[in-house]
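Summary for the steering committee. One of the milestones for this cycle was to obtain a three-dimensional model of the protein with NDP bound, which we needed before selecting residues for the alanine scan. The sequence and ligand used are listed below.
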Amino acid sequence: MEIPCLPSGNERGRWKVGNDSGMERTDTKVKKKVALVTGASRGIGRAIALRFAKEGYHLVINCAHREEELLKVQQEIVRERVSCVTVLGDVGKMADCERMFGMVKEQYGTLDVLVNNAGIDSIGLLQDMSASDWDRVIRTNLTSVFNCCRLAIPLMLAAGSGRIINISSVWGNVGASCEVAYSAAKGGVNALTRALAKELAPGNIQVNAVACGAIDTEMNRWMNEEERSQLVDEIPVGRLGTAGEVADFVYHLGCQGAYLTGQVIRLDGGWI
Ligand code: NDP
């Protein structure tokens, strides 16, 4: 069964933003589609959230630190005449995720699409990495995916359908020198995606991952001009990807039917 990408016109705009928590109920019989995007205060997560909002989805958006930026994204989303709930919390912590999913249940009672996007990078030699930094990278990039999937699955099973899309990295496929913890975490995300897809296919829940190449976001701003142009030289398409390109792809992936599941799809301009 395919989830239609576009809710019909009369399903849109019947929830309105009334307060910081995002909305005020105006019609309890509204049939709505809901997407949750973690790490949506900027970059790829922000672009994905806006893309789903443009298509009429109600949104739950999250980040851990930059509340002001998250609230700006909320304002952009509600201009699309959909509602948006913001939740500040660390997705690497189960307690924070339980609070976030508590709000999903309370405000919407359902979840159609979960995008596990929140992530952090860490550059340096493994031999210099502290145990606490290792733990932070694994928790933020991998444990977060377990936490959110664990809490989304009962809602999706109850609804009889769902889409889980994990934002991964080409380094999870091939590994990167000086990004060992990040590569290990994203490799874990890829394996989780393939295994969970098998577990959830009978429940009509599709699980896929997008393994991004170099995307032009704050995560890559540490590079100087020379490093950036060396990187661009390695990418056949001749440039970094944009957050909007990832968002478009993620949205269309979320529209695919049941047979597309368990895939880790590279989006890297032909780089790796
Ligand atoms: P950004 O650094 O621009 O954004 C990261 C987002 O994640 C922010 O919203 C940040 O918000 C949030 N975040 C970080 N830690 C947590 C946490 N513990 N809990 C909740 N939210 C958190 O990165 P990108 O947009 O570039 O990256 C998005 C995803 O794409 C990541 O998973 C990344 O690994 C992946 N990716 C990116 C690539 C790139 O080249 N940019 C390449 C391959 C994959 P805040 O700081 O306020 O908490």
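Key point for the committee: The helical segments are 43-54, 67-78, 94-107, 131-159, 171-174, 180-200, 225-234, 243-253.
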